[in-house]
Design a protein that fits this description.
Number of domains: 2
Mean pLDDT: 89
Oligomer: single chain
Helix content: under 10%
CATH topology of the largest domain: Jelly Rolls
Structural class: mainly beta
Distance between the termini: 40 Å
Low-confidence stretches: 1-40
Number of strands: 25
CATH architecture of the largest domain: Sandwich
Radius of gyration: 21 Å
Number of helices: 5
CATH class of the largest domain: Mainly Beta
Amino acid sequence: MSVAPHDRRGFLGRLFSVGWLGALAPVGVSAAAVPQAASSGDELPVLPGYARAQSYTSRKQSSTDPMGGNADRWSIPAGGSHDVFVADGPGIISHIWFTIAASSPNHLYEIVLRAYWDGHDRPSVEVPIGAFFGLNLGSYRTYESAYLACSPGKSLNCYFAMPFRQHARLTVTNEGRQDISAFYSNIDYLTVPSLPDEALYFHAQYRQSAPGVPTTGDAARTNPDGRLNHVYLETRGRGHLMGVTLGVLQNADGWWGEGDEMIFVDDERTPAIIGTGSEDYFLGSWNFGGRDGAEPFAHRFYGAPIIVNPERVGGRYCCYRWHGDNPVTFARYLKHTMEHGHANNRADNFYSVGYWYQTEPATAFPPLPPVDDRIPRVRMA
């Protein structure tokens, strides 16, 4: 599915709907769909945002060769870390592009991306790099969505807007045992006179449950409180949920996706949002086509671009769901969860990332699992 650049950039207009960014087109609205305006008796089309004067300045930080040669890359030794972006604000990261040459077959699990806003020492993004870009099971697959994409040539793209007021710092850390020979980076950003008061900070949190805890007997028939659910994210503050990515590695035959999403909003005991099944949450249906008919798909706000060996031991799925049409708002507290099968009656491996915005530039994250524990492995009882 093709997504026009102005549609992606239009997310900035949705996020910051006042001042200098208010002129940007809303997500999903083409120039042809913009209402007409009258002027001196003649009807003239309203100018799209890109044809209006802007008050920001476009900038880029990249891995370009500082000597002007063609060595436009960084090498990152085993155990080493590199600052891929450092800037003072106010500003907004608008696009991230990475591509990596590494000998380790597990480098998408081993490299960790972190983002720090406004001088905080706690990261607001802390995710294995593959999972951050929707490749939660560590293998590349070409796909496109509204905010994340992987292009031919194994290039990783992110279009989430990431505002910062005073300072921004992004790092990549090689937690593997082998050196990364070449890490290429291009990060586009804007410097601006100021950010509106309602500008929020971007967050992304990694979670895994490998395996989940199955329940048996009568207890498996109902799940009123979501106590054993997989947790995508949990945070306190004010903001809104933008979506999730999920990798599933099956530990048993059968369909893994009967689990409902349960989202707790400003109430830690009772979910405010409950769905009808995992494949329904990811806006597919009927097991994505079933054991012998499942087909990968990737659309603007939802998809399952990786489906391998469906409904069998070792079956692999990567899914995503964006809430850009209706971000889930919270005033004090948010926990996004999903059952492991109906009422947690399965024990498949889940590897997920939750993406959201909130007022606080940093919040508490659970410890990132050790790198060896992040590598998906089938775990049979």
